[in-house]
Write a structure and sequence with these properties.
five-stranded mixed β-sheet, single chain, 26% helix
Length: 371
């Protein structure tokens, strides 16, 4: 027991101070103070070794509101370490207590420009307007650009919402130049397959539906080799590529036609899907089932009685073509008689003329003999 007690004492003498030292080191902190016009506007206590970023322009503006003090729009400010005339600083690692001062750089009436683009077709074909703002001016998106009404949504590129993380996060106060893309409130007008179309501006173009087809995509050339994944803007020219997904089969039994849809994946048409009691034809030819559909078509259905009547009618028409009717016989007889009459008349005239000529010649011969 006497040997154990010294061990415990040694443990407490060595271990407890070590733990206390670790705890003390972990809690060592420094203070960072932020000044404007020689007055502290904020301070913070941080662990030694922490990375510190100076207060943002917006944060300082908010802190100064309660003091009836403000930053002057058009004046550029920067943070300096130790004093108002100290070295310019950005983020730093805090090792000791530190004072930061926000001071004017001496630049006044500084401007920042925002270029607002729209109707972007390529790097040389787009519309825009550039607006200048005082540095640090309170910013809000305009309602009109280049005489066109726009929404408050702004984007970083002409892809608009077609790509992720493309929306422009408008700052509370304007500190940097920017180029953004605006959304017109009116629909975009563009050419699609040679026809004029309209759809929501800066949204995916809308193609009219094509029956039994699925839209593959949009292209900028008629040969469908250059895909277009952008949005609808004015002046755009696009072409669509479609893929057939089904066939339309019109079922006609002499009453109100109905329509069936047969998919490309399973183009087989079974007779059980059609009304009972009919014989089915396509383009006048009877079909057998199962029938494979390869195009849009009309399937006509007739009852056996209707088919029998059609065959009888066709046979009667064929017989009628082989034998002449009573009226046709009379007509042919009249025409024949007319030809006979004309022929007889011509023959009689010929014989009379011949007789007269012969008589004249005989008289002439008699007169010659008498002389």
């Amino acid at each position: 027991m006497k040997k154990i007690i010294p061990c415990f004492l040694l443990f407490f003498l060595l271990f407890i101070p070590m733990r206390s030292g670790e705890s003390a080191f972990a809690d060592d902190r420094v203070t960072v103070r932020f000044y404007f016009d020689e007055e502290v506007v904020s301070s913070t206590s941080v662990l030694i070794g922490s990375e510190i970023s100076p207060l943002s322009y917006t944060t300082v503006k908010n802190l100064l509101k309660g003091r009836n003090v403000d930053l002057v729009p058009g004046t550029v400010y920067e943070w300096r370490m130790g004093s108002a005339s100290g070295e310019k600083t950005g983020a730093f690692v805090a090792q000791t207590d530190t004072d930061l001062y926000l001071v004017s750089t001496g630049v006044t009436d500084a401007k920042r420009s925002v270029t607002y683009r729209y109707d972007y077709l390529d790097d040389t074909h787009f519309r825009f307007q550039t607006i200048d703002y005082l540095y640090g001016a309170e910013y809000s998106a305009p309602t009109q650009i280049d005489g066109r009404s726009v929404t408050s949504r702004l984007y970083l590129s002409e892809k608009y919402g077609a790509v992720a993380n493309n929306e422009f996060n408008a700052p509370a106060y304007l500190l940097e130049d920017a180029t953004v893309y605006v959304v017109l409130t009116e629909d975009a007008t563009y050419t699609l397959d040679g026809k004029t179309c309209k759809s929501a501006y800066a949204q995916t173009p809308v193609a009219p539906e094509k029956k039994n087809h699925s839209l593959v995509g949009f292209f900028t050339d008629a040969e469908l080799t250059v895909p277009y994944t952008g949005v609808a803007v004015n002046g755009l020219t696009l072409f669509t590529k479609w893929e057939r997904v089904s066939y339309a089969v019109t079922v006609d039994t002499g009453e109100e036609p109905t329509e069936l849809t047969v998919t490309i994946e399973d183009p087989t048409l079974e007779k059980k899907t059609l009304p009972d009691g009919y014989v089915w034809t396509v383009d006048g030819q009877e079909v057998s089932f199962p029938y494979t559909v390869s195009s849009d078509l009309t399937l006509r259905g007739m009852t056996p009685q209707q088919i029998s009547e059609i065959k009888e009618k066709e046979a009667a028409e064929a017989n009628a073509q082989k034998s002449l009717s009573r009226d046709e016989i009379i007509a042919v007889s009249i025409i024949g008689a007319a030809f006979v009459a004309v022929g007889a008349y011509s023959l009689i005239r010929f014989l009379v003329k011949k007789k007269k000529k012969q008589t004249k010649e005989e008289r002439k011969k008699t007169d010659t003999d008498k002389q």
